[in-house]
Amino acid sequence: MPTRCLPREPSLEQLRTLAKTLQRLARSGEAGAVELVREFHPRLADAVAGCPELVGLSRADMQLALARSYGFASWPKLRDHVATVNRLTRNPHRQPVGNPVEGQAELVDEFLLLACLTYGADDPSRPARARALLAEHPELAAATIHTAAAVGHVAGARDLLAADPSLASDEGGPYEWEPLLYLAYSRIDSTDPAHSTLEVARLLLEAGADPNAGYLWESEYPFTALTGAFGEGENGVNTPPHQHALTLARLLLEAGADPNDSQTLYNRQWSPDDDHLELLVEFGLGRGTATVWGTRLGAAHPTPQELVEEELRSAAEKGRIGRVRLLVDVVDDVDGIGTDHPLLEGRTAHQLAVLYGHTEIARLLETAGAVPQTLTAACMRADRPAVERLVAGDATLPGQLIAAWPDLVGKAAELDRIDAIRLLMAIGFDLNPTDRRTPLHEAAFHGNLDLVRAL
After folding, report:
1. Cβ–Cβ under 8 Å, residues 200 and 145
2. Within 13 A of 351's CA, how many CA atoms are on the CB side?
3. Which of 13, 155, 216, 388 could be 89's S-S partner, Cβ–Cβ 3.0 to 4.6 Å?
4. Are strands 89-90 and 214-217 parallel, antiparallel or unpaired?
5. Spatial distance between the Cα atoms of 299 and 200, rounded to a whole number of angstroms
C-alpha cells in the first residue's frame, strides 16, 4: 500500500481523532483498519483480526502506523511536520479587499492587500488601485516597514531599520509576511526617483532579512521571495514578473537564496523564456542533496535533482530545445523521472520528445546518454522503411513496444498522426482497446473530423 498525502492545512487534532477511531476499528477487526496496521506497523505485519496484538492495540501503536502511512517514521515526526506546515502556511488569495476602511491601520492593510500578488485573486486592477491609494495618501509609502518595502521607499526604510534593525524580519501586515515578501510580490512598479525596491532589498538584507523568506500557499507550495521576483504562472497576464525581476533575483541569490526553487520552476514553465533558468543554473540549480524547503518539509519537497529531472521532462514534452540544452549539463540522470508527475505518465524526457515529435531534442538526449526509443521514434515520425527494418531485425520489438506503451496509438490520435496510427496498427496495436480511451474518442474529443473519418 503506498503512503498517502496529508490533507491541505492538516490538523493535529483531527489526526489524533483519526488515530483513535482507527484504533477502535482495528481492535474490533474491521478489515481496512487491520490492513493499515499490518502494512505500516513495523512489528505487526502478521497480525490478524482478533489476535491479542490487535485486540489490545495501544493508541501509540495506532499513531505510529498512521504516521508511517503518511510517510513519516514516527508520530513525533508527523506531529513536528504538521506544526511546521501550520506555522508557515499563509493564504493571501483568501483575503478580501474593498471593505470599508476606517483609520490608518486599515488603510495600510488595504494598500498592501492590493499591492501584492496573491496567486489566486490577481488582476491588473488591484495594483492600479494600490497606486491610486498611494497617490491619494503618499504617507503610506513610509507608514511601516512593509509598505516601505512594497513601494521601495528608500529613505523610509532606512530610517525604520536604523531605529530597529529587527524590523527586517518582522512578520506583519495583512498577509503576515516579512518585508522582503511584500517587496518581491509588490507590483506597484514605482518610477519615482525616491523609490527603489532594489535599494530597499539591499537595506533589508544588510539588516538581517532572510533571502529564503517564504510561506506555504495552502499549506503545500513554497512561495519564496525568489518566486515573487520571477512572477508569472498559469495566469501570467495577471501575475507579471517584478519590475526588476532578474536584478532582484540575482540580488537574492547572491545573498544566499536557494536556486532550487520549485515554485519558480513551475511558474515559469508556461513561458518559453529561459532567462530565469540560466540564472538559477548559474547559482547552483540541481546541486546538493537538499533544498532549504526540503529541510523544512522533509520528503514532501523534491530534491534538487528531482526538480531538474522534472524540468527536463517538461521541456522535452514542450519542444523547448534551449531549455533542454541548459538542463542536460545539470541533470545527473537524463532518464530520471523526478517526482513522476502523473501528467507525464512516467515517461522519460527522451520518451516524451519522441512521443511529441521533437526529433532534435531526442537526438540531443541520446547524445547525453538517454536510452533510445528507436521503434517508437520511427512509428511516430511515420517512417515505414525504418519500422520494417527494425521489426525484420528483431520480431519481439512490437510486443515490447505494445507492453511498454499500450496507449501509444491513442497518443498518436491526440497528436493527429494518422500515418503513425497506420504504422502502429501494422505492428499489432489495437485500434479499439477496451481498457482505455480509444483513438476515436481522442480524435472526437479534440474535434478532429478528418481524423474521425479516417479512423
Report:
1. no
2. 14
3. 216
4. parallel
5. 35
Nearest alpha-carbon partner for 88 in 226, 214, 264: 214
Please answer whether residues 212 and 88 qualify as being in contact, where contact means their C-beta atoms are separated by less than 8 angstroms: no
CA separation for the pair 159, 161 (Å, rounded): 6
Do 86 and 60 meet the contact criterion of CB atoms below 8 Å apart?
no
Cell of 168: 527586517
265 touches 249 (CB < 8 A): no
Cell numbers found for residue 19: 488515530
Give residue-wise pLDDT tens across range 97-116: 988 899 999 999 999 999 99
> Are 375 and 405 within 8 A, CB to CB?
no
C-alpha cell read off for 323: 531549455
Name every residue whose Cβ is closer than 8 Å to that of residue 189 and which is 6 or more positions away in sequence. 127, 243
The HSE-up count of residue 225 (CA atoms within 13 Å, CB side) is: 34
pLDDT digits (tens, 9 = 90+) for 361-409: 999 999 999 988 788 888 888 889 988 898 899 899 989 888 888 888 8
- Grid cell 474490533 — which residue? 28
* Residue that is written with C-alpha cell 496567486 in the block: 119
Biggest alpha carbon–alpha carbon distance for the chain: 82
Cα–Cα distances (Å) from 436 to 5, 402, 405, 454, in that order, read 27, 14, 12, 20
For 383, the enclosing helix (H) or strand (E) is none
* Cα of 3 vs its chain's centroid, Å: 19
> Which of helix, strand or coil describes residue 122?
coil
Tell me if residue 177 falls in helix, strand or coil.
strand
